[in-house]
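A reminder from the course coordinator: this example appears on the midterm review sheet, so study it carefully.

Given structure:
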């Protein structure tokens, strides 16, 4: 007992001063990426925990490797920050991976208009207050054949807005086959209820005809809403109403709106998908879709169609909440101009990658030659994904890595640039159809560091080790 007490007297209970600790070299990368106050907070909360612990009471600071523990905690916080990743999942528009990456040329092109003041709501012609639309009407009209267009924060906004403005307190007819849910809880029936419109279901899951819609019309019907089946497909004995016929037979005052979703317009690579242009030319009054799916722009919802209906939507009070900011507007403007000019940077990532699926073979081949004892080539399927072309997959190539798939998946996810692959049939796979050329060279360097020259990528290896302590 006496000996113990003696030992305790030598024990230091003085934790380092936070201010001094913040000067230390090992914290500077964290301060840079997380900010000094956030790092300070992590230090203080760790120290508070230490003070409470039984080990500290007995052994003081000696019981702790403060630098290691702090690094590990800060590394865990850092993982929450957005970072570029390499998408080797084979799903080209991956909702968890930010949907469509924006072409760097596009990003650079809108720098000045965003880093200066601009004419967002000013008519340069007469100096009066203008609409927040830029060239959007003209560009969308040229691209889709619709009279006018409108930009909102995402396609869920589009649907809410058109129901709220055009069908509130009235009936909206929707096919039973189209009562869909897209991803995180976006359900057409829920949106309908929120907007104040009343859902009238017609047809069956697999068959809905024009007659079904026509028969359901009452004096209270405001709209027929056709929802493009974008994240599932019903195969076999199915029938959906022809838009041409519907548009012809619907009474004038009933609006025909289509949630097209994916945003396919004129891309030659997706002939299976019914395009915005086809819906417009078939007589739909309004068509809406996402900006960050096939189009390849930033998160946005685009509604196009009849000019007087678009004007009504613009006047809805919710527009104030739904309208896009200038960053998104400028990107969409630039993208549409390039798209109309058929420039490469005007194509979305899915269009670009689907056009060069064969390149995945050359990539897989190169990896197998570089890492013959770790990697084997395999034939795979890629999908566009993100709620588009549910029934279409594309033959492509990738590689399997030898080893425990869970360990590989975790280790590669914690590289300095995370590599996201998939586990299929108990094997870890890198699908190369979704890896753009620009990312492929980086992928090689990272794999080299991981598979061959472990010392070559010390940053990643240390990180994987440190993070282990947190997760
Ligand atoms: C993707 C999609 C939506 C949701 O669009 P967000 O831009 O994610 O809000 C709605 N409807 C359809 C048919 C879709 O494909």
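Designed residues:
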């Amino acid at each position: 007992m006496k000996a113990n007490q003696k030992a305790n007297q030598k024990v230091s209970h003085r934790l380092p001063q936070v201010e001094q600790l913040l000067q230390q070299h090992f914290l500077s990368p964290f301060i840079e990426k997380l900010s000094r106050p956030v790092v300070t907070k992590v230090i203080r909360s760790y120290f508070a925990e230490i003070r409470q612990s039984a080990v500290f009471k007995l052994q003081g600071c000696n019981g702790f490797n403060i630098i290691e523990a702090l690094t590990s905690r800060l590394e865990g916080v850092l993982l929450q920050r957005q970072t570029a990743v390499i998408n080797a999942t084979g799903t080209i528009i991956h909702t968890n991976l930010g949907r469509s990456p924006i072409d760097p040329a596009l990003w650079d092109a809108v720098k000045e208009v965003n880093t200066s003041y601009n004419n967002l709501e000013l008519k340069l012609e007469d100096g009066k207050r203008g609409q927040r639309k830029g060239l959007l009407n003209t560009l969308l009209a040229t691209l889709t054949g619709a009279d006018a267009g409108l930009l909102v924060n995402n396609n869920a906004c589009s649907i809410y807005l058109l129901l709220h403005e055009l069908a509130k307190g009235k009936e909206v007819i929707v096919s039973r086959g189209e009562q869909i849910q897209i991803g995180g809880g976006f359900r057409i029936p829920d949106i309908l209820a929120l907007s104040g419109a009343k859902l009238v279901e017609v047809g069956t899951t697999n068959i809905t005809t024009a007659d079904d819609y026509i028969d359901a019309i009452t004096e209270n019907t405001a709209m027929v809403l056709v929802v493009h089946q974008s994240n599932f497909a019903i195969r076999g004995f199915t029938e959906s109403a022809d838009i041409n016929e519907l548009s012809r037979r619907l009474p004038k005052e009933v609006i025909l709106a289509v949630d097209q979703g994916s945003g396919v317009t004129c891309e030659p690579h997706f002939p299976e998908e019914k395009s915005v242009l086809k819906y417009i030319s078939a007589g739909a009054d309004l068509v809406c879709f996402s900006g960050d799916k096939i189009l390849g722009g930033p998160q946005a919802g685009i509604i196009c169609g009849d000019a007087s209906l678009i004007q009504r939507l613009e006047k809805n009070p919710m527009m104030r909440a739904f309208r896009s900011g200038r960053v998104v507007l400028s990107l969409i403007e630039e993208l549409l101009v390039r798209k109309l000019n058929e420039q490469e940077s005007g194509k979305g990532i899915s269009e670009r990658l689907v056009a060069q699926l064969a390149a995945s073979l050359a990539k897989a081949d190169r990896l197998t030659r570089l890492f013959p004892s770790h990697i084997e080539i395999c034939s795979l399927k890629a999908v566009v994904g993100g709620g588009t072309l549910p029934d279409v997959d594309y033959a492509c190539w990738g590689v399997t890595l030898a080893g425990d798939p869970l360990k590989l998946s975790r280790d590669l996810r914690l590289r300095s640039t995370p590599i996201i692959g998939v586990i299929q049939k108990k094997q870890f796979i890198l699908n190369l159809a979704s890896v753009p050329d620009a990312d492929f060279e980086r992928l090689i360097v990272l794999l080299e560091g991981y598979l061959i020259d472990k010392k070559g990528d010390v940053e990643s290896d240390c990180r994987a080790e440190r993070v282990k302590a947190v997760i």
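The pocket of pyridoxal-5'-phosphate is lined by residues 154-156, 182, 186, 227-228, 230, 259, 261-262, 290, 301, 387 (CB under 6 Å). The mean pLDDT is 90.
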